[in-house]
Amino acid sequence: MNAETKDDVRARNGTLSVRTRIVPELTAAFWCYWFLAAMAGEIEGRSLSHIYLHRSGRVIVALLLCFLAMSILQGATRRFPRTMFWSTTFLLSLLGAVLAKTADISMGGGDIGAILLIAILLIFSFVICYRLTGNLPGPTDRSNVRGFFWITALLAQTAASACADWIIDRGGPSERLAIAVITLGIAATIGLYFSTRMPRSILFWSAFVLSGTVAALGGHLVPRSIEFSGQNAALLATAAAAKSFYPTDRFSG
Question: Are 74 and 85 spatial neighbours (Cβ–Cβ below 8 Å)?
Fold first, then answer.
């Protein structure tokens, strides 16, 4: 009877830990979904930055309120946990893209200045969370650090978006070199995860920033590629129309 009671308590504790998990289980599918959500948020954030260039403050306030509402709702309800999480992740990526662009323009110090500012805020988030809770915000922490997790995630994705802006910028580093460094960083993180006992929260945030930077780069390059393909298609259509109006047979002989 005692053994059954202990097993039941363990089962309930295990269920509780799963229910209070901040993010879904860290599998390959999770990182694929995270990459797609971050890239979609980057694309939408860039569009908003261009459309509402002179109203970025209002856009940031509106997005921030939506993000806070979604994060609070995720902690308050247990319904549709995956939908709530990925919706919050999309808003996080969208808000991070707008914040990175606004910081770059408003500070006047370029992408490097924005990266340094966001990195300092990110370090403060880690330090404050550790001082108050005794732990770094991680993917399996309980609800007492849920707010720290989402704030840290927002700052991390904003830093990733600012890094992508710096890489894309003409005055930034070589794109090939940057992609090579990011690839080596992701490979090193995976290797440390399987071969060492390094704290999982550190590895999680390393992978979070690196994959967020790649997603932000995709958010920059995909619309540009689509626009370039559309321009080529328009040029080909114009050339075909001109050829139909002025056939070469008229000028032969």
Answer: yes
pTM (2 decimals)? 0.74
Helix (H) or strand (E) holding 45: helix 28-51
Joined together, the tokens standing for residue 130 give 């550790």
- Region of 202 on the Ramachandran plot (φ > 0 left; ψ -120 to 50 alpha; else beta): alpha
Per-residue tokens: 83: 């939908």
- Contact at 8 Å (CB) between 75 and 24? no
Weakest-pLDDT range from 52-56, 121-125, 162-166, 226-230: 226-230
- Per DSSP, 23 falls in state S
Taking Cα atoms as reference points, which of 49, 44, 70 lies closest to residue 59? Answer: 49
Express each pLDDT in 215-224 by its tens digit: 888 887 766 6
Residue 80 DSSP label: S
Q: How far is CA 145 from CA 65, 161, 209, in A?
A: 19, 24, 19
Chain centre to alpha carbon of residue 68: 16
Contact 107, 82 (CB under 8 A): no
Tokens of 149: 């997790």
